[in-house]
Amino acid sequence: MSRRQTVAVVVGLALYALLPPFLKNYGVYLMTLLCVYVMAAMGLNLVVGYAGQMSIGQAAFFGIGAYHVAILMKLGLPFLAVLPLAAGSCFVIGLLLGFPALRVQHHYLAFATLGFNVLVYLVLRNEQGWTGGTFGLAGIPRPTLFGVELDGNLAFFYFTLASTVVLALLLAWLLRSPWGRAFAALRDNPIRAESLGVNITAYTLLAFAIGAACAGVGGAYYAVLVQYIEPSAFNVPASLMMLLAVIVGGSGRFFGPLVGTVVVVLLPEWLRFAQNWYLMVFGFAVVALMVWLPGGVLSLADRWRRARR
Amino acid sequence: MNEKIIEFDRVVAGYSPSLTILNDLTLDARRGEITLLIGPNGAGKSTVLKTLFGLLVPRSGEIRFEGRAIGGRSPRSLLAEGIAFVPQGRNLFGSLSVLHNLELGGITLPRGALAGRIEEVLHRFPRIRERIGNQASTLSGGEQKQLEVGRALLLHPRVLLIDEPSIGLSPKLVQEVMGLLRALADAGTTVVMVEQNVRTALKYANRALVLETGRLALDRPASELLGDPDLNRLFLGGAGSPAAATAH
After folding, report:
1. Tens of pLDDT along A133-175?
2. For residue B184, what are the contacts with CB-CB under 8 A and spacing of at least 6?
3. What element of type H or E holds A213?
4. Domain spans, chain B
5. A169 CA to chain B: closest CA distance, Å?
6. Hey, CA dihedral for A39, A63, A80, A74, is it positive or negative?
7. Is the separation of the CB atoms in A208 and A61 below 8 Å?
């Protein structure tokens, strides 16, 4: 990242952190929700954008993370103890799913992950003893951080924002490591990668599992943000929304999920002035964006650079 | 005559059960030599390299490396044995920098060894050192080929398989790349090369193996074949019966 880009990121982050005290509760909620979805979308970007695989099952891992937190926190475990469990479970389930599923590619893999999402949704809906079924789980407490309660929306926003930054830094480190380069090699050309000794199966599986763990972390924060979860929030439309965020922002670009999530989460809110038409306007806006900028919003910078040459 | 390091013994291989490319192919490559595979399109030249490198599993027959059977082993394990492969065409990861491409080439090395190996490659290819921070896609054709070969050399391979190294290069750069392969062979690396630019490649090779429909049609010293007035016919097909393979 160039110096100018670093400055832009720091300034953007500072503005994002400074804005909530001037907003109403719903505004703070939306800004926190955006952070939560960014975590899940960053994980999906690793799978789709960097490792070149297709997944329509990210919301399943998001749900698994959320239910872990909801069930275990209601049993009295602290959030900071449950969070690694949620991430770890999603990582392991990601490995278990990926091992057979990643034998197929592209749209076949998309359908395999979609099937997994439907399966998880059905389990969440039907295992009432654990999940509350369609009634969901209510009364999920907000976390306490070293004795400081994060009940207030503003305090919880800053906690979530800081966590999102930490996760982003971890992923940035990963992508700059030899692992990240192996992911990029897989996406560009798996046969070339294999001829260099890149263990295609292991690295693809790893990307898939790390992406699942990120969704699990996002789901964990989602549960304590909304304090009530039910299965429909983790069904296939949520996975499509996350995939849309990655593609609209710029798949394979580090900040793509951030920009895409802003579009996917905030644009419908900004369009509410259109009342009953707002989802239709949103749909047309996304179609227009994809036609005009198939590489995502962040590809605009490349176009601008090419035009200047 | 140098010792045989690679041997194909009646190998049958192809891309699907209905598409057999190598038909009972028997050939060998010798230590410290450049073995050139030539023949018409579809003769199985690239398939030999892919099968040797584990990208295709032989259906029958045996492939031996230093006398040990290696047929069906993964590319990763063959790299560890000392066999490296530079496939046909552009093989770099264009979106990554030159340094990152080199680091990928050494992904199977222990972490501590990588920096030293990269330094060795940069010492051999000073032009690559100058471009170390650049995106690989911005390199010229010759620089890209140097980087591809350099990347393969990171692992100190004993056998280098290289498929059509001259594609897309100017005649001057082709000479450079061939000179580099010759120097490697003279230093003890066994090179097995597929090349369409036959006349140039023959000047640098030790042996030429002519393939036809997945069989060895001719096995002759490169210098002898270079002087053969029938070279074009051999290259385009019609080298003779398989029996000719053992003629020399």
Report:
1. 999 999 999 999 888 889 999 999 999 999 999 999 999 999 9
2. B153, B160, B191
3. helix A200-226
4. 4-92+159-246
5. 20
6. positive
7. no
Give me the CATH code for the B4-92+159-246 domain, please.
3.40.50.300
pLDDT in tens, A28-69: 999 999 999 999 999 999 999 988 889 999 999 999 999 999
How far is residue A266's CA from residue A297's CA, in Å, rounded to a whole number? 15
pLDDT in tens, B117-142: 999 999 988 889 999 999 998 998 88
Q: Which of A182, A195, A199 sits opposite B87 (nearest CB)?
A: A195
Of A185, A191, A199, the CB nearest to B104: A185
Q: What is the pLDDT of residue B239?
A: 56
Per-residue pLDDT at B241 = 45
**DSSP H helices in A47-199:** 58-74, 79-101, 106-126, 128-131, 153-176, 178-188, 190-195
Task: Give the Cβ contact number of residue B186 at 10 Å.
Answer: 11
Q: pLDDT confidence of B183, banded at 50, 70, 90? A: very high
Integer Cα distance of B53 and A294 in angstroms: 37
Percent of chain A residues topping a pLDDT of 70 = 100
Give yes or no for a contact between A75 and A200, defined as CB atoms under 8 angstroms apart.
Answer: no
Contacts of A197 in chain B (CB under 8 A): 75-76, 79-80, 107-108, 155
Q: How far is B205 from chain A (nearest CA, A)?
A: 24
Shortest distance between the Cα of B107 and any Cα of chain A, in A, equals 7
Phi, psi of B24 (to 5 degrees): 55, 45
Question: Nearest 5°: phi and psi at B79?
Answer: -60, -40
Q: Is A197 on the interface with B (CB under 8 A)?
A: yes
Radius of gyration of chain B (CA): 18
